[in-house]
Specification:
The chain is α+β, with helices and mostly antiparallel strands. The protein has 11 helices and 16 strands.
């Protein structure tokens, strides 16, 4: 049940014939495969449904994990229903999901990890259960590092009860002011939607709810009372996965724009391209059909002035636009220092946030 050298430099398994979902998508070009030969488990090794925890090999496909724990009406925290990459690849992906406010990032729910540094030494962080999680928080350091600090071979995950009911509310608007008034109204309601996304070109806002049948119906009633021109319907988990897929970038060169909530009013309807989708509560939108010219440069400057960032959605976009996948963060200095000690022979690729 082992997959030799199953990961490339961002921790993504060899899934050339698989349609990848919300994480692990084309983060690094193939020429940046790491030079570290290691066998990575590709199996679910320990599953305790009563304690709601599971241990998996990092080369295990997310779809396999979802199907296995789903038989017990459980789901891994922070994983979106359309994800079909590897568990290790998702852990290594630095990008956020459309549902961050609701579920958080996947790596925020990882209880423990095992792996290897470039020096050959072992990496052990966290534990198999919550009460055993002690010591330095290396999980947050390695999570999202795209494999720059080591190869993660095994992960211990926290599970949660799967939602039993899903609902969708659609609202059409005639002008942008109406759309933002509706968004502000929904955000003030006493519940957190599973996902909110805006389609400026279609003049439409969509709200996805999850929970029990009673909770979703009560939330829909509140939305219909305060937001005009809305329609609601019950949807299935499979339809939620389809919505996620449709909202992902469909173009080979797309940009991911991050802006604080208030900033979207100034840029949502003026951009050097077309919006695939905007997730204002999650803080980002995906911009496609972008022209690489002065208008793009001006747009990047405006976003920066609003306290946001513009990043490449994949390695192709990074190379074409000369815009990084992930902008530098305060952890860079620490990461550089650890890399010189943990990877003395430069066996791992060095990209994105940690280059």
């Amino acid at each position: 049940m082992f997959s030799p050298a199953a990961f490339d430099s961002d921790g993504v398994g060899d899934l050339k014939n698989t349609s990848l979902g919300s994480g692990s998508r084309h983060l690094l070009p193939p020429e940046l495969d790491h030079k570290f030969a290691v066998e990575i488990p590709a199996a679910i090794e320990n599953f305790n449904p009563e304690e709601m925890i599971v241990t998996v090999g990092a080369a295990t496909s997310v779809s396999q994990l979802l199907n296995h724990v789903g038989e017990h009406r459980l789901t891994p925290s922070g994983i979106q229903p359309d994800e079909t990459g590897t568990v290790g690849g998702l852990f290594s992906d630095p990008r956020e999901s459309p549902c961050d406010p609701f579920t958080g990032r996947f790596r925020d729910h990882v209880l423990g990890i095992e792996g290897l540094r470039g020096s050959g030494a072992s990496i052990l962080a966290g534990g198999r259960v919550v009460k055993n999680v002690t010591g330095y928080d290396l999980i947050r350091l390695l999570g999202g590092a795209m494999g720059a600090l080591g190869v993660v071979t095994r992960l211990h995950l926290r599970l949660e009860q799967a939602a039993s009911n899903w609902a969708q509310n659609s609202c059409r608007f005639d002008d942008e002011e109406m759309s933002w008034n509706a968004l502000d109204t929904v955000r003030r309601l006493p519940f957190e939607p599973y996902m909110i996304y805006l389609e400026p070109e279609n003049q439409r806002m969509q709200i996805i709810l999850s929970g029990t049948k009673r909770s979703t119906l009560e939330s829909l009633q509140l939305i219909e009372e305060v937001v005009p021109n809305t329609t609601s319907q019950q949807i299935s988990h499979q339809e939620v996965a389809q919505i996620h897929r449709k909202k992902r970038s469909g173009e080979p060169m797309a940009l991911r724009v991050r802006v604080p909530w208030a900033g979207w009013r100034k840029i949502a309807f003026v951009a050097p391209g077309s919006w695939r989708s905007i997730f204002p509560s999650a803080g980002f939108g995906i911009l496609e059909k972008v022209s690489s010219d002065e208008k793009l440069q001006q747009f990047v400057q405006i976003v920066s002035q609003l306290g946001g960032t513009v990043c490449a959605e994949d390695a192709v976009a990074e190379k074409h636009f000369q815009i990084p996948l992930v902008h530098p963060s305060p952890t860079d200095k620490l990461t550089h220092r650890l890399r010189s000690e943990w990877d003395p022979h430069s066996l791992f690729a060095w990209r994105g946030d940690h280059r």
